[in-house]
Design goal:
about 65% helix; 10 helices; alpha+beta; 5 strands; single chain; about 375 residues
């Protein structure tokens, strides 16, 4: 805006009354085209036409009047437009815009008006073209490096998740094996001891029978403690909401994503059964994976609530980039929906201008 004012006001001040209408009109057209350029990011042809219109309108608006002095700011405005063309357009389209702007800067001097010498404009254009080409090359390399790093980071997360899952399975198998060993060895021996104590109690006198009964009670308590230990070893590790909290802490501690968690009254103590807890955990896990892969920012908002005690709801929201287009329900989202429906609930997926939302509802009264 400052460059435009410095370039435009001197020309308006030295213009005749007949020049003012077309200078002001072309100036208005320039600003209209300049500021609607972002609307055509998805259409290269319309983007080229819009920048071309802005370039031609700038040449018309800044065309030197007969009484004006040499104005270097016009060349600065053309340079800004050339940079916008290089940043937004393909090399071919950008080169065409560059030719139009170069001719607009050369023509006044060639026609004998107050303007820059054509040799000066040519050298300046070559230097500016080289600088912008170098910028485009560095920017492309940076985008490629960023995309490659994102891919590597995604693969690292997947590998780490697989390793954690395999470690959990191995640990569960080990716990189950220890439980079987205790059940087969200690449990069977305690059962045999109980049978022998009962047999000796029936064959002994009253005093000895009382002692045997006490030993039998002690052995029975030991057997029950052993069975409780075996059941504890065979149980699955913590799941549901506690596991979700552990997942969130792990992701934040590794600086992979920033999580904002809102748990309304009763949400963390909701009586979800095992299948529902697993469904909620997997849904939140898949939603966060989607946010890390496709979100425009490493930020996720999670809401848990249990209104009235009969329903459990969760919502995962993350910023998204609309330029990627509408989402496609892939394998992960389909599996999430099937898991929620299998647990007696439902899943809603919505995409707005700048947000991607996954909502899940579970009926806690269903077994």
């Amino acid at each position: 805006m400052a460059s435009w004012l410095c370039a435009f006001l001197p020309e308006v001040g030295g213009a005749s009354p007949g020049e003012l209408p077309w200078r002001l009109g072309s100036s208005a057209a320039f600003f209209a085209a300049f500021f609607i350029v972002p609307l055509f990011r998805g259409s290269p042809a319309m983007l080229f036409v819009t920048i071309l219109v802005a370039s031609i309108c700038s040449i018309i608006s800044l065309w030197p009047s007969s009484s004006s002095d040499l104005n270097p700011y016009a060349l600065l405005v053309y340079s800004i437009l050339a940079g916008k063309a290089v940043y937004r357009l393909s090399p071919v389209y950008a080169a065409m815009i560059g030719v139009v702007l170069t001719m607009g800067a050369m023509l006044p001097g060639m026609l004998g008006l107050t303007g820059f010498p054509w040799l000066y404009v040519g050298v300046y254009s070559l230097m500016l073209g080289f600088a912008l080409t170098l910028f485009k090359f560095i920017a492309s390399r940076y985008e490629e490096t960023t995309a490659r790093n994102e891919t590597l980071l995604s693969e690292y997360r997947n590998m780490k998740r697989r390793l954690i899952t395999e470690e959990q399975h191995a640990r569960q198998e080990e716990r189950a094996q220890v439980g079987r060993d205790i059940h087969d060895s200690v449990g069977h021996k305690l059962t045999a001891l109980l049978m022998q104590l009962e047999m000796h109690r029936m064959q002994s006198d009253d005093r000895t029978a009382e002692v045997m009964q006490g030993l039998k009670v002690l052995a029975n308590e030991s057997l029950e403690d052993t069975r409780d230990a075996v059941r504890s070893l065979k149980q699955q590790e913590t799941g549901g909401l506690p596991a979700i909290m552990g997942l969130l802490r792990r992701l934040e501690s590794e600086s992979l994503i920033r999580v904002t968690l809102t748990a309304r009254h009763g949400a963390l103590t909701a009586p979800l059964h095992n299948k529902q807890s697993i469904a909620v955990y997997r849904a939140v896990q898949e939603a966060m994976t989607n946010a890390m892969k496709h979100g425009s920012a490493r930020e996720v908002h999670i809401l848990f609530e249990a209104p009235g005690g009969g329903l459990f709801r969760f919502e995962v929201t993350n910023p998204c980039n609309r330029s990627r287009g509408a989402y496609a329900e892939g394998f992960g989202l389909k599996s999430m929906r099937e898991r929620m429906e299998g647990a007696g609930g439902q899943l809603e997926i919505a995409q707005f201008d700048s947000q991607f939302i996954i909502r899940g509802t579970l009926n806690m009264s269903k077994p």
